[in-house]
Design a protein that fits this description.
By secondary structure, the chain is α+β, with helices and mostly antiparallel strands. The protein folds into three domains: about 80 residues, no CATH class; about 160 residues, Sandwich (Immunoglobulin-like), CATH 2.60.40; about 160 residues, Sandwich (Jelly Rolls), CATH 2.60.120. About 20% of the residues lie in helices and about 25% in strands. It is built from eight helices and 25 strands. Strands 14, 15, 16, 17, 19, 20, 21 and 24 form an eight-stranded antiparallel β-sheet that branches. A five-stranded antiparallel β-sheet has the order 4-5-11-7-8. A hairpin with a 4-residue loop joins strand 19 and strand 20. It is globular and about 65 Å long.
């Protein structure tokens, strides 16, 4: 194989396998070492097949993932379906928005349980792995009640809507109603060895070991990976020194591409990521970009996340200036659940510390003041506007970006017929008078 051809194949393999690498890292970093009622896992091991719950809304300096949200509490679980199916029990949320997003080990959002598809009443769902030969058991014949996973390992990332700190006790009670149990009534939460240092840099040897282990447990169609064995990537591969050197060069080459997201920029300078419906298909580059930057993303019919890095003139957003984002009357983001605008520091992609503990503003923010014509103007600045604190989204002193979270987006938003208004720089922190 020619040198250029070998280099291209190694880079293609690195891109293809990056989501597997990130999933191994995230499983090691987020699966619990101790659970209530059972205690600590054996030394070096973690628990799977059990829900864990975040009990507080995320604030500045309180997240392990970039671009976190401040609208929901997370309820998550890592599942190993190798021993048989599991049953997911969900409580009645009485109309409150929730979703359990199910990711296969290649990061495809292959199924969703929640308001959009299965309602908000108490229900039970059967989740079976790719090797399970049973049919659909009695009690799980209703549409959506039997979910088949493409991979042995599954990551559930659940989100439950929270209407501010005063709403936390009610959501805690709902979280406690989510449960996992074995279908055969014989297995408790399971201990496993994650066999991964999530803080290790992606050296070729570490990367190959993690990816190849993931491929052994969660094989994709053979046609997708057979040719990567020539560069040391595959369930049975054991890369030699030359292959590891080539893989390290590939890792160094593809990382900048993965950090440059694919996006469609509108005339108002909002960036919209490509739509995803259940799987990334053959778009391995976008799948890898999402795994590195937004792992755990829901499919687009569940939520979309337009980003604004620039103002109406195309200049980078900065806390050295003040801005206004004005929605005209009857032109708020079209959603069937809720929307919010969240502020992030562009240096670390994290929430911004501020004196009023406001990290997002949206349709559930109490006390928002409407414009005289019924529109809504959000004031964005580092300093508080003297006449508009109710509508103020605090910014850092320097660069920032905004994320518009739209849950259950309507077709006009998905199809691009609704265009978000631009973020307009204003002459002073007071902003323009609508």
């Amino acid at each position: 194989m020619a040198h250029a051809e070998l280099r291209a194949l190694t880079e293609e393999a690195a891109v293809y396998a990056w989501p597997l690498y990130e999933m191994r890292r995230m499983r090691a970093a987020t699966s619990p070492q101790r659970i209530a009622g059972t205690g600590a896992a054996p030394a070096g091991q973690r628990w799977c097949n059990v829900f864990t719950h975040a009990r507080e809304l995320l604030r500045a300096d309180a997240s392990r993932v970039v671009t976190p949200n401040n609208d929901t509490l997370y309820t998550t679980a890592w599942l190993d379906l190798g021993d048989g199916p599991l049953v997911i029990d969900v409580p009645d949320t009485a109309g409150r928005y929730y979703v359990l997003g199910l990711l296969d080990f290649h990061t495809n959002p292959f199924a969703h349980i929640g308001q959009r598809l299965t309602g908000t009443e108490a229900r039970s769902f059967l989740l079976s792995g790719p090797d399970w030969q049973g049919g659909t058991p009695a009690g799980f014949a209703a549409p959506g009640a039997h979910v088949r996973s493409p991979t042995r390992w599954v990551w559930i990332i659940g989100r439950i809507l929270v209407d501010g700190p005063q709403d936390l006790p009610a959501v805690h009670a709902l979280q406690d109603g989510f449960a996992l149990r074995p279908f055969d009534a014989g297995r408790a939460p399971k201990a496993f060895d994650p066999d991964c240092d999530p803080k290790a840099p992606p050296s070729a040897a570490h990367y190959a070991a993690q990816v190849n282990a993931a491929l052994r447990e969660n094989p994709p169609p053979a046609r997708e990976i057979a040719r990567f064995a020539a560069v040391g990537i595959g369930p049975d591969a054991a890369p030699d020194a030359a292959q590891l050197a080539a893989l390290q060069a590939a890792i160094d080459a593809v990382q900048p591409r993965l950090r440059t997201p694919q996006a469609r920029r509108t005339a108002s300078h909002w960036q919209h990521k490509p739509l995803v419906a259940g799987a990334f298909g053959e778009d391995h580059l976008y799948r890898a970009q999402v795994a590195l930057q937004y792992i755990g993303m829901l499919e687009s019919r569940e939520a979309v996340y337009p980003l604004a890095w620039h103002d109406a003139e195309g200049e980078p957003l900065s806390g050295r200036h003040a801005y206004a984002l004005r929605f005209a009357p009857d032109a708020l983001p079209p959603v069937d659940a809720f929307w919010s605008l969240t502020m992030y520091d562009s240096r670390d992609c994290m929430l911004v510390d501020n004196p009023i503990d406001r990290y997002a503003i949206g349709d559930r923010t109490p006390g928002l003041a409407r414009d005289a014509d019924g529109g809504l103007t959000i004031r964005i600045a580092h300093a508080c506007p003297a006449d508009a604190q109710a509508n103020w989204l605090p910014a850092p002193r320097e660069g920032f970006y905004l994320c518009l979270r739209a849950y259950l987006p309507r077709p006009e938003l998905l199809e691009g017929r609704y265009v978000l208004p631009p973020v307009v720089r204003t002459p002073d922190p007071q902003g323009p008078t609508p």
